[in-house]
Amino acid sequence: MKKSVVILGAGESGLGSAILAQKQGFAVFVSDLGKIKEKYKNVLLQHHIEFEEGQHSEEKILKSETVIKSPGIPDTAPLIQKLHKNGIPVISEIEFAGRYTNAKTICITGSNGKTTTTLLTYHILKNAGLNVGLAGNVGKSFAGQVANEQHDIYVIELSSFQLDGMYDFKADVAVLLNITPDHLDRYGYHMQNYVDSKFRIIQNQTKNDFFICCSDDEIIQKELEKREIKAACIPFGLKDPVEPGAGISDEKLIINFNQKQFSMSILDLSLQGKHNTYNSMAAGIASMVFEIRNEQLRESLAGFQGVEHRLERFLRVHGIEFVNDSKATNVNSTWYALESMHKPVVWIAGGIDKGNDYSMLKSLVKEKVKAIVCLGKDNSKLHAAFDTVAKNVVDASSMEEAVKAAYYLARNGDTVLLSPACASFDLFENYEDRGNQFKEQVRNL
After folding, report:
1. What is d(CA 207, CA 228) in angstroms, rounded to the nearest whole number?
2. CA-closest candidate to residue 356, choices 225, 146, 185, 200
3. How open is the CA angle 103-109-112, to the nearest 5 degrees?
4. Strand, helix or coil at 299?
């Protein structure tokens, strides 16, 4: 009898898991409560993988030996609770794929900067000629690549939701960029639960592994005092560099690692701004673990093109610059975006609030924002936070309305910034859809 595996959710990670499970000889059943995208459905049909959409057949699912669930499904969902009660392991795609590869892994998490750091690290290793795959929240699914491609190293972006479904998986190089309140709605509005989730990035690490973390982040530093870290700990921060570690001295980014020193002017980094200096340091250290030569590292840090939907300077219309930062799905990301603006801002914000505390934005809004366009089904929290801070606060119920309102409120020399500080699921499929609609509407002006 074949072992059975059920996959909940037929998105990118679910599809990859299904193909890998079939290749490993499992009897596979894919179940999605929503509608499965045509391109994914076609792949399932080609592989003769059994699937259902628009429902979860509980009787069948509860007979499974292992369940791989999409990170979007919360542990509190009744079906997941039943699976736990029946003692059926519920794991993430990353956990499953990790069982079938001996490749080295660089795993990157944090509340902000994950995607940029992951893509930058991948860019550095690929430029140096290494056989490297990009997976997790970006790129193709990890499981799909393990099934169909053989890479020596994977650079994997991990959200807390993915980490929650990981048990035996180990990161050879773990990167923890920062921890600020996010997704608290999924963690019982208890910050420590979220912190514990992020620290799963170092579970199962040994003294032969590496843990790269931010020395300027108070939450991380407090947590390190409580925990026994087995891996070699390599800190990075904006103060003088330590050995081993990364820091800034005389406007130079310096990394000390393994008796080697790397340095370059922070003015030569392709990614500018304080938050990006952190990202460049973390990616630089991770790359030096794999013995990338200094000149290759310098070239990659200077030539990286950045990330779509992350502070993407998109278009200028009648002297007004439009910046797409749709990827800013929490308050801290938006703080960085506003902090990096040097012209008067018309700020488009809003969406699904994940237990946001907007107080940290108030002084920046007072200093830099001339008007706010609230884009969401329920904008009451934004109004409560900013009606007394900004001169103009208006509502919009579609991206077309929001862009037109922002354009009307802006003047030559101003910046219109889409940086929502919220999830996108009330009006959009995801942050990419939100960013793409923004760009489309700006083009239509």
Report:
1. 11
2. 185
3. 145
4. helix
The 10s digit of each residue's pLDDT in 23-76 is 999 999 999 999 999 999 999 999 999 999 999 999 999 999 999 999 989 999
Asked if 197 and 163 touch (Cβ cutoff 8 Å), the reply is yes
Q: How many of the other CB atoms lie within 10 Å of CB of 302?
A: 14
Across the beta sheet with 320-324, the strand order is 312-317, 320-324, 415-418, 345-349, 369-375, 392-396
Would you state the torsion angle of the CA atoms of residues 99, 104, 109, 115, taken in this order, to the nearest 10 degrees? -110
99 and 40 part of one domain: no
Q: Please, are residues 171 and 142 in contact by the beta-carbon 8 Å criterion?
A: no
pLDDT tens track for 71-109: 989 999 999 999 999 999 999 999 999 999 999 999 999
Q: Residue 279: give the domain boundaries.
A: 95-303
Cβ neighbour number for residue 221 with a 10 Å cutoff: 14
Select from 91, 122, 149 the last residue of a domain: 91
| The two structure tokens encoding residue 294 | 């200094």
Please report, for the domain that includes residue 139, its CATH number: 3.40.1190.10
Same domain, 246 and 107: yes
Half-sphere exposure of residue 106, counting CA atoms within 13 Å on the CB side?
30
Name the pTM for this structure.
Answer: 0.81
What pairs with residue 236 in β-bridges? 214, 246
Question: How is residue 262 written in tokens?
Answer: 């790397």
Residue set of the binding site for ATP: 110-116
Sheet strands side by side (includes 90-91): 50-53, 27-32, 4-8, 66-69, 90-91
| Of the residues 47, 69, 91, the one at which a domain ends | 91
Cα-based torsion angle of the residue sequence 29, 64, 146, 101 in order, rounded to the nearest 10 degrees? -170
Annotated binding site: 110-116
Name the phi and psi angles at 127, rounded to 5.
-60, -30
| Backbone φ/ψ region at 139: left (φ over 0), alpha (ψ -120 to 50), beta | left
